[in-house]
UniProtKB/TrEMBL annotation:
Record-linked SUPFAM superfamilies: Composite domain of metallo-dependent hydrolases (SSF51338), Metallo-dependent hydrolases (SSF51556)
NCBIfam families xref list: nagA
Gene this protein is translated from: nagA
Location of the Amidohydrolase-related domain: 73-398
Keyword S-adenosyl-L-methionine among record annotations: no
Name this polypeptide is given: N-acetylglucosamine-6-phosphate deacetylase
Length: 404
């Protein structure tokens, strides 16, 4: 798979817009001439001022001006469901976790929640402790526990022998191990303890996500009433929509309290399913995710997802044993480009699904998710064909602008 690479300065720092290294402490910057996607709509021939780590209301005196005409400026992407990339996962060391984080930053993901996969509880507790340190350092935005509290009927790429019912005491154990950085837990809420666990999560300000579930329509509605607010990769790892047994999909799509995750890689969803979700839920209730595993931004081959072996061929990850889809190799710049060029979604709706909605879910929309004064200078520069040409995170170029 092709990946965008940063061009390092001689000292290893990313290159700035004009071939000079730029850090958050350098002179203010103004990007001009682009189509700038704001919460109020797209501004043609727009200007975006950056001062230090933040977006500024106006250009400071002496600011460097860079012409990015012919490009789009959009907010940095926010991924709330991501297991790894660049050949590394969030189940390993801190160095491996950071390799995954950096891989996705090169593809425009300036804010990332690290997702775990089903494993022994003691290992998950240790993993939560390690990841919480990265959250405290500001490298990740928190932790998402996907499993082990999921249905063996809809286990996907999770080890069935390690699955367990969502006992609230064990859910609480993971929350405590995350030291305030647990952002989301995916549950099969129909299992014993599921509804009580949803209530526990809601009480602690952690998102309860319905996923890897065999629940009925009625059971899913009960979970939503108890406080579940996210559908983990809607359509995938749950019963299909039926006309007599509508199942969880109908309940999750129809309830305005629920945000639905979608994996827009052309593998996990038929375009008609994506269109159904957007039409029924609306752009304000969709969050594009990657559900990426180690091979995102890396080559085909054999990988591990938790304790399970995965074969990646032509960018599609499947379990060696059984052949189930095992996460994705998606990056959010590819999800953006596909949504606009293949699915024909409005750019503004795609920005909402990639940035604003996940930022809101995380409670970080006062800092990220849109290009507004006072917010972090997190942005992505795309060319007219929606190919990634630059990434800035907190005022520093991660991928230097690749201008004509």
């Amino acid at each position: 798979m092709a990946t965008e690479r940063e061009t390092p300065a001689p000292d290893g720092a990313p290159r700035g817009a004009r071939g000079t290294a730029r850090s958050a402490t350098t002179a203010p910057l103004v990007l001009t001439g682009a189509r700038v996607v704001l919460p109020t709509g797209t501004v043609e021939n727009g200007r975006l001022a950056i001062d230090g780590t933040r977006i500024a209301a106006s250009a400071a005196a002496g600011a460097e001006v860079v012409d990015v005409s012919g490009h789009w400026l959009v907010p940095g992407f926010v991924d709330i469901h991501n297991h790894g990339g660049g050949g590394a996962s969030f189940a390993g060391t801190a160095e491996q976790a950071m390799a995954a984080v950096r891989t996705h930053r090169l593809h425009g993901t300036t804010t990332l929640v690290a997702s775990t996969v089903t494993d022994e509880m003691d290992l998950l507790v240790r993993q939560a402790g390690l990841l919480s340190e990265l959250a405290e350092q500001g490298e990740i935005a928190g932790i998402h526990f996907e499993g082990p509290f999921i249905s063996p009927c809809r286990k996907g790429a999770h080890s069935e022998s390690l699955l367990r019912d969502p006992d609230p005491a064990e859910v609480r154990k993971l929350i405590d191990a995350a030291r305030g950085h647990a952002k989301m837990v995916t549950l099969a809420t129909e299992l014993p303890g599921g509804i009580d666990s949803v209530r526990l999560l809601a009480e602690h300000g952690v998102i309860a996500a319905v996923g890897h579930t065999d629940a009925s329509y009625e059971q899913t509605a009960e979970a939503i009433d108890a406080g579940a607010t996210v559908a983990t990769h809607l359509f995938n790892a749950m019963p299909a929509l039926g006309h007599r047994a509508p199942g969880p999909i109908a309940a999750l799509l129809e309830d305005e309290r629920v945000t639905v995750e979608l994996i827009n890689d052309g593998v996990h969803l038929h375009p008609a399913a994506l269109e159904l979700a957007f039409r029924h839920a609306g752009a304000d209730r969709v969050a594009f995710i990657t559900d990426a595993m180690d091979a995102a931004g890396s080559a085909d081959g054999r990988y591990l997802l938790g304790p399970l072996e995965v074969e990646v061929s032509d960018g599609v990850a499947r379990l060696v044993e059984g052949g189930s889809i095992a996460g994705s190799t998606l990056t959010l710049d590819r999800a953006f480009r596909r949504a606009v060029t293949v699915d024909k979604l409005p750019v503004e709706d795609v920005v909402t699904a990639l940035s604003a909605n996940p930022a809101r879910l995380l409670g970080l929309d006062d800092r990220i998710g849109s290009l507004e004064p006072g917010k972090d200078a997190d942005l992505v520069l795309l060319d007219a064909d929606f190919a990634l040409k630059g990434v800035m995170r907190r005022g520093e170029w991660v991928v230097a602008p690749q201008l004509p």
